[in-house]
Amino acid sequence: MDTSFIPHEDIIEEKYMSRFFQVLTASIDRTRMAVSVIFLSVVDIRDQKEEDITVFLENKIRQSDVLCHFEAPFQWGLILSQSGEEEACAFLNRLFSDMSLQDDLSFSASIVEIGNSDAAFDKVVEKGRESLKLALQTGPGHIEYVKDFKKKSLVHLKLSILEENDILRNVIQTSLEDLKIDGFQLEIRTFQDGYDFLNSDWYLSSHPHVLIMNDILPRKNGLEVLHTVRHLPNNKKFIVFMMTQRNSEEDMVYAYESGVDQYLVKPFSLRLFEAQIKRVFERFWS
């Protein structure tokens, strides 16, 4: 049987795979989307042609994914962008089903989910190949999972409280400090008015920023602050909670059209507020 193989133009050779891996994983901490690497091999080679299988794999992946042919015969690597372990497993199950219908092929695989931008490519390949070997020994259709690189980086999240009333400001701060949310490093600052907030450099970093403020404040009010942050180049990093005593439909519509994400009519429930905050955190990493 001839096992020689000449890669297609769209197939990455193993020696170039690390570069594509680095490009795709570099944005994980920013996008909060995992990347998965699949190691795939044929269980029973028999008279199968390596090139035919490669063409089949090439037709199954998305344009945003990368297919690599390893130097070892009948072994491939797939980098699935913005896909966690669950999505990679679903992809493999569909692939195994399609392959079994075509030429009665049998495959096994391993999946490595990358949850942060610090994962070293050589370590990922080492663990992935070790697990692939175990999968092949177990039998056709078996999938091994590598857990070593799933840990997510901490999300550095800024929270600003703009409220003139000392008691309410302290209550909100204490409530936020007491929240137990894994995966986040919270940094909280309070301001008595919008003027102090806008004259600080606190809001100019690129970190995600939750802004909780009253609509009526001395010197610079909440709507003026909202107008300023929504005209920044990176304004989407801000999640804005507007506290107010105004509950008319017209006021609410105006606030939302101006860029408010949540509208809190005083007096509001702290339990409801905490639930809303937790839901916001989930948006930064799912």
TrEMBL record:
Database matches in Gene3D superfamilies: 3.40.50.2300
Pfam families, per database record: Response_reg
Keywords tagged on the record: Phosphoprotein
Signal sequence region: none
Domain Response regulatory: 158-281
Alphabetical list of InterPro entries matching this protein: Bact_response_regulator, CheY-like_superfamily, Sig_transdc_resp-reg_receiver
Keyword tRNA processing included in the entry's annotation: no
Domain of life of the native organism: Bacteria
Official protein name in the record: Response regulator
Organism taxonomic ancestry: Bacteria, Bacillati, Bacillota, Bacilli, Bacillales
